[in-house]
Design a protein that fits this description.
This protein has two domains: 78 residues, Arc Repressor Mutant, subunit A (Orthogonal Bundle), CATH 1.10.10.10; 247 residues, Rossmann fold (3-Layer(aba) Sandwich), CATH 3.40.50.150. 48% of the residues lie in helices and 15% in strands. The strands form two sheets. The chain has a seven-stranded mixed β-sheet with strand order 5-4-3-6-7-9-8, with helices on both faces. A two-stranded antiparallel ribbon has the order 1-2. Helix 12 links the parallel strand 6 and strand 7. The N and C termini lie far apart (49 Å).
Length: 370
């Protein structure tokens, strides 16, 4: 579909100085876009892992360590140095990946690992034309319709925070939950994806049993494969179900988790109400959502820039694909909903005791009880 918009004439009141400043910002953003492609390649080809701990390297050295063509690596390294990802010693012609950068770029199980977000960016570009059409029609584009890099990238991006905080901070902040998990609790994870946080909990609490549900069959298959490979198949399994059609368990679920999923749902209030109906009388819902203020002006910073962009391309479009009933707390929340709207969703879903119990620069954690 092509645009029929008539080009606007240049504004006559534009300040030349402010035009120059904004043009420089756009150049910087364009550099960031291209740098993101090179970061994606560095991750996919194992270049960062090959440089991690290796000290100063020439492009020929890196070619020898990775099997990649030296001429491409020569250009890639220069671009990485220009972006500040690696350092360059002009006297020796060698490049170094600092240890402080390696734990962000090269060590997947580090709590500081963030390179997975680059895969999400790749998926955004792959889906950009479909999103342009959705802008015109108002239709959604579902999770299951997306570039597969979204699935792996989302998991890798959020897994860093889960590894850093879930077991040591978030669960202990919930009233009585860790004790219940140690004694033996029934735990459900809604929108589980590849199951990373649920598998962490399965390993940490051997007396409990765990179920993850997701409407995306390919993700459920991956999660079950990972459970089997870890030797946990007797205590955790994953099923295909949505946030509003998973079943009960005898006595109710003791803990229902929603990790960074509520804002992707077409009707978050219905999801909250379904969780309330399936919960044990003294059960708990743990809601993990992207950190945000309640008002747009509170989110006009680098993290807000990232989350609003992701919300436009992914979260809002995914929620709209589920035919939710519209705006307000029952419609597509977006990834910067803020605590006030989250509390309203939980309140309308039937919860009476709601409190924020923990948070990181990226996430906020709410506890909800009947």
């Amino acid at each position: 579909m092509t645009s029929t918009t008539t080009p606007a004439p240049p504004p006559t009141t534009a300040s030349p100085e402010r035009v120059a400043d904004f043009a420089q910002r756009l150049i910087d953003d364009q550099g960031t876009v291209f740098s993101g492609v090179l970061t994606y390649l560095g991750d996919r080809l194992g270049l960062y892992r090959a440089m991690s701990g290796a000290g100063p390297l020439t492009s020929a050295d890196l070619a020898g360590r990775t099997g990649c063509a030296e001429r491409y690596l020569r250009e890639w390294l220069a671009a990485q140095a220009a972006g500040g990802y690696v350092t360059y010693d002009a006297a020796t012609g060698r490049y170094t990946l600092p240890d402080e950068h390696a734990v962000v770029l090269a060590v997947d199980d580090a709590p500081t690992s963030l390179v997975g977000g680059i895969l999400v960016g790749a998926a955004a570009w792959a889906d950009a034309d479909r999103i342009a059409d959705a802008f015109r029609t108002g239709e959604g584009v579902g999770w299951h319709e997306r570039d597969p890099r979204l699935f792996a990238g989302t998991e890798r991006f959020y897994a860093a925070g889960y590894r850093a905080s879930l077991l040591g901070e978030w669960l202990p902040a919930l009233d009585g939950v860790v004790g219940a998990l140690r004694r033996g609790a029934r735990v459900l994870d809604v929108g589980t994806g590849h199951g990373t946080p649920l598998l962490m909990m399965t390993q940490a609490f051997p007396a409990s049993t765990f179920v993850g549900v997701d409407y995306h069959p390919a993700s459920v298959q991956t999660a079950n494969e990972r459970a089997a490979a870890a030797g946990f198949a007797d205590r955790v399994h994953f099923e295909v179900a949505s946030a509003t059609d998973y079943g009960p368990v005898d006595g109710g679920w003791d803990l229902i988790c929603l990790f960074d999923v509520l804002h992707d749902l077409g009707d978050p209030v219905a999801a909250a109400a379904h969780a309330r109906a399936r919960l044990a009388p003294d059960g708990t819902v743990m809601l993990v959502e992207p950190r945000a203020g309640d008002h747009v002006e509170e989110n006009l910073h680098p993290l807000g820039k990232l989350f609003y962009a992701a919300s436009t391309v992914f979260c809002t479009a995914i929620a709209l694909s589920q035919h939710g009933p519209g705006e307000g707390s029952r419609g597509a929340l977006g990834a910067q909903a803020g605590p006030e709207r989250l509390r309203r969703v939980l309140d309308e879903g039937g919860f009476t005791r709601i409190r924020e119990v923990a948070g990181t620069p990226v996430n906020t954690v709410l506890e909800a009880r009947p």
